[in-house]
Amino acid sequence: MSRQKAWSAGLIVLFFVAWELFCLMTGMSDLVLPRPSQVFVTLFQRFPVLWPHIVQTLATTMFGFVLGVALGVALGAIIGVSRTAYDTCYPLLIGFSSIPKVAVVPIFVLWFGSGTVPAVLTALSICFFPIVVNIATGLATTEPELEDVLKALGASKFDILWNVGLPRTMPFFFASLKVAISYAFVGAVLSETVASNRGIGNVMMTASSNFNVPLVFAGLFVLAGLGVALYAVFSLIEGRVTGWATRKNDVIAT
């Protein structure tokens, strides 16, 4: 496992080295593609200024993400156990998820004004759909035979849902969390570029208008780092909670 991690880290370093060499060898303008060294220097120099915006974007993203998870789990549970809810809600959810969220942000701004609320709502609206789909799929894949046995033993529908259905959806749930957190960042930053005076999205928009491309890429690096960190956190929790559903690497076929 340590060798695999070393290879992964080496490939990441190689990617940045190749990027640096490409810019140096081709004489690439900073206005087109800055070198990684320039981006990291800019990030280090401007970090005290960027820190409040990082906190703002992270807080907005997490707030919208938590609300999206709560809504997604509730809707997914309803859709997964009710055929009527599936036939009624699923087409509406697909239609809503197909709407570009950049078209929804102005509506949120019209309703709630510019600032944090539209960013939270945009993050929520863009991240809850994967959770709904995965929760509903996990519940729908519960074996009918198992449900029949539990009903014969006197279990109610709620007992089956709480003690069997939801635990069996945990692998689906954590898979959707790792996707949804990335979507939540996209939604929050999208709203910040349109209707906010704080956050990484606003910093990137301002830097772009001032042709400060290294600062734009510094914002991208920050977002990528936050996304990877949260992905790693959810992967760690997933391994603790759903280790029974994970294929072990030490199992060797004979």
Automatic annotation (TrEMBL):
Domain of life: Bacteria
Protein location: Cell membrane
Membrane topology term: Multi-pass membrane protein
Parts of the chain that traverse the membrane: 58-80, 92-113, 119-141, 172-191, 211-237
Keywords: Cell membrane, Membrane, Transmembrane, Transmembrane helix, Transport
Keyword presence, Nucleotide-binding: no
The keyword GTP-binding is annotated on this UniProt entry: no
Domain (ABC transmembrane type-1) ranges: 54-234
Coiled coil regions, renumbered to chain: none
Gene3D superfamilies per record: MetI-like (1.10.3720.10)
Database matches in CDD domains: TM_PBP2
Similarity-based family: Belongs to the binding-protein-dependent transport system permease family.
Protein name, entry field: NitT/TauT family transport system permease protein
Organism: Bradyrhizobium japonicum
